[in-house]
Amino acid sequence: GGKDRRSGLILTIPLCLEQTSMDELSVTLDYLLSIPSEKCKARGFTVIVDGRKSQWNVVKTVVLMLQNVVPAEVSLVCVVKPDEFWDKKVTHFCFWKEKDRLGFEVILVSANKLTRYIEPCQLTEDFGGTLTYDHMDWLNKRLVFEKFTKESTSLLDELALINNGSDKGTQQEKERSIDLNFLPSVDPETVLQTGHELLSELQQRRFNGSDGGVSWSPMDDELLAQPQVMKLLDSLREQYTRYQEVCRQRSKRTQLEEIQQKVMQVVNWLEGPGSEQLRTQWGIGDSIRASQALQQKHEEIESQHSEWFAVYVELNQQIAALLNAGDEEDLVELKALQQQLSDVCYRQASQLEFRQNLLQAALEFHSVAQDLSQQLDGLLGMLCVDVAPADGASIQQTLKLLEEKLKSVDLGLQGLREKGQSLLDQISNQASWAYGKDVTIENKENVDHIQGVMEDMQLRKQRCEDMVDVRRLKMLQMVQLFKCEEDAAQAVEWLSELLDALLKTHIRLGDDVQETKVLLEKHRKFVDVAQSTYDYGRQLLQATVVLCQSLRCTSRSSGDTLPRLNRVWKQFTITSEERVHRLEAAVAFHSSAEKILQECPDQPEAFTEMEQFDEIEAVGKSLLDRLTVPVVYPDGSEQYFGSPSDMASAAEHIREKMKLVSLKKQQLRQPEATTPES
Q: Which family does it belong to (predicted)?
């Protein structure tokens, strides 16, 4: 690292006691002389051969070798000799003799006198100088530099090859070069880091002082190394930046190709096996169980599609990320891939949804059909059972239940029609998803099945309606029959009540003619009411007979109702006639008695015949006797009018009037008795 007074570089060759290999020394010198620049070499070298620990023959050989290695560059050779060891004359004469032939001056000098030719600051401590030099440190730095230079040069060549291969040629050649996956033999980041560390070390030694505070002048090789390192680093950074861009483009292209490959996998599966699965699934089933089996099969198909749809979502996100990156050259291709993928996936998803909705509609249709079938079976079973109600209320309840079931069937059939029409509408739209496949046969089978189910249900419902109409008429007739029987029984009760009222309340015979006639008129109206009740009962019983004949059944109550009606009516008729006889007798009695009692006593000629009084008395007695006689019915039973006290009260009025008549008779007889005496 030192320099002589001509600014030439100083080359120090230390020799040792061991045998020195001239070949190795020659190679070392060649290497060392290759380090300085041509400008430095032009200033010449001062070579210091340290022979203090070597023999003269070795020193001489080394000096002669310099003639072959660096004859033009060497200006001075200083051989440091040992003290009093060599023959001065021989050595001096020898080098002087060879001066012209060698081409450089050779001097023998002691170590302490070396400063005559070279400044102390340019000599190391081994020669009494002050130049700081650490050979191992220099060697390590040199090795680092050599390694960096070798690696960086090789790396530059490789990066240039990669980068140029990406820039040149057609697109096909570019893709072929990218497909080689050619990578640098060393890590560019590591080489760059090594270069930066080396450059930092060289620059630090240039500007920092030595330990003694004396400014240290770097060796020319280090000064030369700095621009070399900087140039290599600049080239590396440039090539590495281009390489990173190439890698980015390669990664992007690789990613784009992977995306394109995955997109085609998704598209090919969806348009191939996926679509084929849907093409083979066109049936809707003929029952709930069949529709459920088809739904389960469809769920398996959906499960397989879900895996590919998940890939679609992932690919769509990757494509969106690449689109956001904004590389214009790939935007068109990416958008085309995205559009193709979306179109296929949405079309397939729409088919799956359509198929699912179709199967759900079919399941609902079959469910409604099954419910309606069960309702029709229940209604038919109810109609097939013979009606044997206990009374009209139970018939009404049964009829109400029958109407409710029929209404429920009607609503069920309406719901079936709505579900069937909706299903038919969906089937009519099925052809648009067939990818050109003719699904007329499959659709016709489905349409025929749906229409067949609806027609069958309509026929069954119509048969049930006809049977319901017949059953309704029969049940209404039975209701009417029970009503007639009940009303006939009620008529018997009413007639019995009239008879009872006639016997218990129709007792009075009146106090005079007028009152008795009023009672007689009321009795006739009372009889008319009873007659209407009897006629109404007879009509009801006749209607019962007609209804029984129509229903082909025997009434359980009309058989004894008619005899009861006739018996009560016969009793009422007998009792009524007796009542009429008593009232008519009372009218005759009151009429005769009142006529006699109202006659003036001054007219005795009116009573010439006493037989009238006898007749009145006879009528009165007959009436009193009749009041004590019970009414005898055809069955031998007897009934009295009212209670004994009531009858006694009615008889009392007759007796009082008979007393008045008897008193009147006596009054009329007294004048007749007094006339002869006078």
A: Belongs to the SOLO family.
CA distances (Å), 457 to each of 24, 286, 382, 447, 467, in order?
A: 115, 14, 18, 15, 15
Comparing 500 with 610, the larger pLDDT belongs to 500
- Can you read off the two tokens belonging to residue 18? 């061991």
Q: Can you read off the two tokens belonging to residue 501?
A: 């009222």
Our measurement of the distance from residue 61's CA atom to the centroid of its chain's CA atoms, rounded to an integer in Å, reads 100
Higher local confidence (pLDDT), 368 or 77: 368
Q: How far is CA 44 from CA 120, 121, 310, in A?
A: 19, 19, 78
Can you tell me the distance from the alpha carbon of 45 to that of 7, in angstroms, rounded to the nearest whole number? 9
Domains annotated on the chain, with CATH: 9-132 (3.40.525.10), 277-476 (1.20.58.60), 506-669 (1.20.58)
Q: What is the pTM of this model?
A: 0.54
Residue 14, helix vs strand vs coil: strand
Q: Could you give the 3-state DSSP secondary structure of residue 46?
A: strand
Residue 219 CA to its chain's centroid (Å): 82
Mean pLDDT taken over the chain: 79
Rounded CA-CA distance 562/550 in Å is 19
Burial of 410 (0-12, 13-18, 19+ CB in 10 A): middle
Lowest-confidence segment of 50-54, 102-106, 406-410, 561-565 by average pLDDT: 102-106
- Residue pair 396/479 in contact (Cβ under 8 Å)? The answer is yes
